[in-house]
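Section 5.1 Outputs to date
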Amino acid sequence: MLELHDERVDTDTPWFMLKEDTLSLWRSQALNKRTQEKINVLATLATDKLAYEFTALNVSQLCSYTDVLLICHGSSSRQVQAIASHIRESMKKECEAHPFGMEGMRGGQWIVIDYGDVIVHVFHQPVREYYDLEGNWADAIRGKLVQDKDSAHIEWPDEEPKQT
């Protein structure tokens, strides 16, 4: 059950009957919690296949089509394909989450997996350097990957995204 931290929200009221300002609050809290859980699962799956230089970019205030970009790379096209396949298959099996789209699997140079609020970019290292997504999203907040023995998660700084 979603926990709401605002007295304006009556948890017994169905979401479709909430007032607009309360509905915005409800949506943002639901999205943040769900998105963070998804990010942590995706981080763990990518690191299972030894993805390098995992970066999370919060672009929620900078674009309208997603909230977070997850970027990592492999040292060969086979490793890139293995990372992407592992993510797709594990998300289907363990989380019953199917991507909206997946591109680039055949070439293995840059694979994009779209989960709506989170888009995963798995690059071959030279391709990642060439396209420099982190540089293109310089105003985004960068999350830090923290790895435990069996899992990984993203820690975000306490600042808000820069608005342009």
